[in-house]
Amino acid sequence: MSPPQAADPVGTHRVLEPAGVLPQQALRLDARREIWDDEVRVRVRRLNLDAASFRQLSEKHRGDGGQVRAEVLDIVRSRGKMQNPVTGSGGMLVGVVEEVGPDSPLGLAVGDRVATLVSLTLTPLVVEDALAGWDGRSEQVPTDGYAILFGRSIAARLPDDLPEELSLAVLDVCGAPALVDRVVRSYTGPDHRGPVVAVVGGAGKSGSLSLAAARQAGAYGTIGVVPHDREASLLRESGLADDVVVADARDPLALRDAVRAAGGPADVTVVCVDVPGCEGGAVLATADRGTVVFFSMATSFSAAALGAEGLAADVTMLVGNGYMPGHADLALRLLREEPGVRSLFERRL
Amino acid sequence: MSPPQAADPVGTHRVLEPAGVLPQQALRLDARREIWDDEVRVRVRRLNLDAASFRQLSEKHRGDGGQVRAEVLDIVRSRGKMQNPVTGSGGMLVGVVEEVGPDSPLGLAVGDRVATLVSLTLTPLVVEDALAGWDGRSEQVPTDGYAILFGRSIAARLPDDLPEELSLAVLDVCGAPALVDRVVRSYTGPDHRGPVVAVVGGAGKSGSLSLAAARQAGAYGTIGVVPHDREASLLRESGLADDVVVADARDPLALRDAVRAAGGPADVTVVCVDVPGCEGGAVLATADRGTVVFFSMATSFSAAALGAEGLAADVTMLVGNGYMPGHADLALRLLREEPGVRSLFERRL
């Protein structure tokens, strides 16, 4: 039986303040244990803090794990969710389904081992072990507690054939290859060939998956852009890109020229590096009527919009959406099928 | 004869600091009077400040025009361009071509009356009259000074059949109808009909042009969303939207429900209101596999990206690009052909 207020699939019934906002924008969520009819409660085993959030906390406390742990605990207690107030970001979690409301549309069953694919920034969460098993020095937070999934949340069952950490790392960025797949398949350029795809940050997690997705979807050529020679070697060894070039993505002319030298401009440019200031270079590296996909959370909307205008660049610019139906399956398939992806991921665990 | 450093068509030769960035990202531009061979110098008659920028300045100084004027002067003097350091936005300008470099590809002649269609945020600018003719209380800033256009800038000759203020106001937002036109024409939904298009801020400048563009491009239906009854009456009188609804765009459920009640969800939602916090509502107002076009400079990239993910919404999100070939001509044509657009614009001058 549900509590009195009707549930909304997006979770607004759990917003305590301010009134009327979505759970992600809320200062405080109602993290009560009792579920509404369309909700699911998950027993949490591990939190995976967003990299930007963990870095901010760690730097603020000068690497003092005890203080980092205390602050995370305080955030979760006071907000009813894990959302870093400075970076605004959260992360994801792994757990086991504990209770499923009779009207839940998620298709989960009690006992399923799942990862949430919606951000912790909007997930009601209660930590019950005071994070006693975490030293505060890694993004991976073993814990015991519970979290709530709404009617319109997304959770993926964790595969049995892959280590949990590996699955988690893939699921965390699975929106990127899914959108690249769609953009490459819907490309209609001259010569009835696929697009030339450049991935900025090609040796990273979302970057390597994007390169693999682009090739499988029929890219005419793939270019991986990396910041230095060490990553260039790694990416070359992986075999995921037809060409690998070294450039500072924050230097627009350098990025443009590097992509051009590797067979560009790109018909599709995918930005996967989490540093600010890559908008202009991405636009300049892209062909007339081409597409830029921004997956970096460091992207500035106004820098992208005004940048393209200022460069008189007729490019389509997409905000990377972390969700697409089937995105988890596609990313896990790429990991299984492409040894180059797997080796790059395993290096980063 | 050009100064020693070679000109780059995107203007990097005028960047003073930091080194290596594009003019838009620069803290300071070289606004020297002397032009490089591919540049054009324009005698400035009027600046048209970006709405978000003007509002921020006006609110900061509590409507004190003298202080607003002093801050604009200070920005232009210290940065060599008019870029609001808080909003990051600029605006555009009107002037008369004063000198054309021998290698300029812009096709302009001395004496042409032009408006720049690239942002002031990247345009070297010198104010020579201390803004003496401006009271600091309007976005329209009459002035005397000069500005520099690069090889890859865009400027439109002002039409003779329209008042200058009207042309300017239209050219300032001409990217919006151009992108809406393209998105509507390329829509491939079920039933071989056009998309249902909702324009949030439909009674505004970019909003009214977007509504007109959507209908001319073959929208199946158009919905104008406005914040209160007075704008609703204006928009209804204009005849530009099939349906007009009142909703606070910052309230996601209210926006979703209002668009739904008017025949939505929308296949294409266009966000034209310059207030923060409209991302979630725009996503929720949009149909599965639909498209959201963000034209508001108040859009937050992370709010859009994480918001769509958090709502498990499979929507394509576009960063509104202010440039597209033919955008000025399309917008001016809409103004001439649609009395409703013209009347809404004239009310705002």
From TrEMBL, chains A, B:
<dbReference type="Pfam" id="PF26370">
    <property type="entry name" value="KDD_N"/>
</dbReference>
<dbReference type="InterPro" id="IPR058932">
    <property type="entry name" value="KDD_N"/>
</dbReference>
<dbReference type="InterPro" id="IPR036291">
    <property type="entry name" value="NAD(P)-bd_dom_sf"/>
</dbReference>
<protein>
    <submittedName>
        <fullName>L-erythro-3,5-diaminohexanoate dehydrogenase</fullName>
    </submittedName>
</protein>
<dbReference type="InterPro" id="IPR011032">
    <property type="entry name" value="GroES-like_sf"/>
</dbReference>
<feature type="domain" description="L-erythro-3,5-diaminohexanoate dehydrogenase N-terminal">
    <location>
        <begin position="13"/>
        <end position="159"/>
    </location>
</feature>
